[in-house]
Amino acid sequence: MNNMEYKELLNILLDKASEKLEDAEAFLVRNKEIQLSIFENEVNKYNIAESGGLSLRGRVDGKMGYSYTEKIDDSSVDMLIEETLENGKYIEDKDPEIIYEGSKAYKDINNYNEKLGNVPITERIDFLKKLEKKALDLDDRVFTVDNCACEEIEQERYIMNTKGIELHDKFNGMIVFIFVVVKEGQDTKTGMSYRMTKDFYSLDYEEMAKEAVEDAISMLGADTIDSNNYPIVFENKTFSDLLAAFSSTLSAENVQKGLSGLKDKIGEQIANPILNIVDNPFLEGGFGSRNFDDEGTSTSYKKIIDNGKLTTYIYNWKTANKDGVKSTGHASRGYKSRVSIAPNNLYVEKGETKLKDLLESTEGGLYIDELQGLHSGLNAVSGDFSLSASGYKIEGGEISTPVNQITIAGNLYELLKDIEAIGDDLEFGMPMNGYIGSPSIKVKSLSVAGK
Description:
Elements: H1 3-17, E1 24-39, E2 42-60, E3 63-69, H2 77-89, H3 114-117, H4 121-138, E4 142-161, E5 166-184, E6 187-197, H5 205-217, E7 228-234, H6 236-246, H7 252-256, E8 277-279, E9 302-306, E10 309-310, H8 317-323, E11 331-332, E12 340-341, E13 346-348, H9 355-360, E14 366-372, E15 384-395, E16 398-411, H10 412-417, E17 419-422, E18 427-428, E19 436-438, E20 441-449
Parallel strand pairs: 7-14, 13-19
Antiparallel strand pairs: 1-2, 1-4, 2-3, 4-5, 5-6, 7-20, 8-9, 8-13, 9-10, 11-12, 14-15, 15-16, 16-20, 17-20, 18-19
Helix pairs in contact: 1-2, 4-5
């Protein structure tokens, strides 16, 4: 179906739904993924997958019913309406959802790059083959390239409702990554490099190969260290992962449910005044950029933490109405799910300090470039965390010998106050957290358990 046919289907659905539902909203998502990977100079995976679905939500006696289907055509219309009616009968929620009438204006952004979608498969294959070969040739200790792949993601969203909203957008992006394995004697280590981009031709395979190989080789001979308190410099992408775990505490839904340590903290100094955390839905090239959220609310630039003070939680309309405020444009959902809350492009604003200067001021400390167990080892309410980590000693003002088999422990809310310096090297995290970013961060001290 094309754009006009999708809109015609949604109009048919809403016209019929309005006969039985007080208010109704149709939400349609179409996804396309192109996955390609190379192993030993041969294509070992090439998949093109299209998916998507259509959902309907509507008010029944003041309650919000939901239904969805993956069969996107007019044969699903009656089923969606009947299932929404049936679902709504059994919903018990003292904080009702609303169907939003739309914002006064929406910023014009282009989140789709036609050129990216038109990159020939032959050019993608050639790039990956060069990337793999370069990595293998860089050092005799490179044992194998475990994974060398790219994935193009494309998504379209349509929101239409009986209150007048009619919105559509289209997004695409590409993730390219390589994992290498190096071996020296019995010591085996892995390294990786990845890029998230909307411009395929900006990628440099030599740069990525070198980054992955150096990442792996630098960890050869890694050992644990004495247990103690150490000053810490977090690598930018690693602090992004920590911020991703912290982001759930900003959700008004979690605050209202008592699942966040930030309850009743609006206006309070919760971090060092040098810290600013923003949500920028208009970030050029951002994987979370969009001009409306999944309820049809216009998005806007927000300072969540401003000079160390918490200024707002992030809201959809259900949680906003409960607190007597306006939605911040952070409603999120899939076609199968109810409306929840998620950031757009959330990141720590970069500072002015070079990484070199951060390291020089952290003599005897640790440079942490990997954390594990973030989903199980961090309590969002208390802020307490205990995480497996690896990285390097900082000696002579530089990164030196590698360190692993350590656990860092502390409290997230205390850590924010103990930030001493912020780097100028803003980067966004791993692909699953590609909308959350940070520069390198220096922290006064954390407990490190080793030997």
